[in-house]
Amino acid sequence: MKFKRIYVEITNKCNLTCDFCAASKRNKRSMSIEEFELICDQIRFLTDYIYLHVQGEPLLHPQLDEILEIAHSKQLKVQLVTNSTLLNEKMETLRNAPAIRQISISLQSMQTIGYLENENNSNRLFENLMQLSKNGKFIQLRLWNFSDQVFTDGINSCLSYFGINKEDLQVEKKRYLTRFKNIYFSLDTQFQWPSDPSDRSMIGSCYGTRSMLGILSDGTLVPCCLDHDGAISLGNVFETPITNLIQSQRFINIQTGFKKNCIIEPFCQHCQFRKRFDLIKKEDFSS
To answer: Which segments of the chain are extended strands (E)?
Structure first.
């Protein structure tokens, strides 16, 4: 079995408290180097891409350079999402890491603290993103909260700098090329984390267990990147090999259910993200 991506939460600590991010009940911890290498050894034959987040700010990990070196040695390509507050500080590590394929910049995180409203901050950030793109890293400028209120002066200056016309933006179009190679803009509406007890459906499908998995900072295996508290714990990869965990009856039931357009787990039945798949052709989930 091969997965398109596996989320590895190297830390669930964050230096911001953005209102669009779900509050976690878990204890704060960062993976040790030994734990991360153990995971890489287990998943290197299951995927080519690892995403260094579920929750938390990956640039906070005190041994990020070693994390990236291990990923490279295991031939795993890295993608990460950052709130960018530490990007200037971690530039050398990011620039010199061949494992990194893409860095996604959360524009709404920076909007939360007014980071882009300071011209000195924004200019330095833009220059560093240019450097990273020239080093072959893909840069995703992510704005997943599409509304008129989100377009502050800082966001507008960012769009202008990268050659994006605000008037051309439309929620139906998710991706826009910028005037710079390897840098693009991603637009979407904000989604709700799975929690609404009044919104339930037992019909639907998902990529969880099908093409993605998540591993939380304590080693808990979950079906997808939205299970931020381990509601669907499929075991712990620090204790049991992941190849055994993905053969468990619970895992098989979830996967088989999605193939049949049936949602088995209560947590998934309340997930708002499933509605995004309504526009995906049924045959995309039939394999």
So the answer is: 5-8, 49-51, 77-82, 100-106, 138-143, 175-177, 183-187, 212-215, 221-222
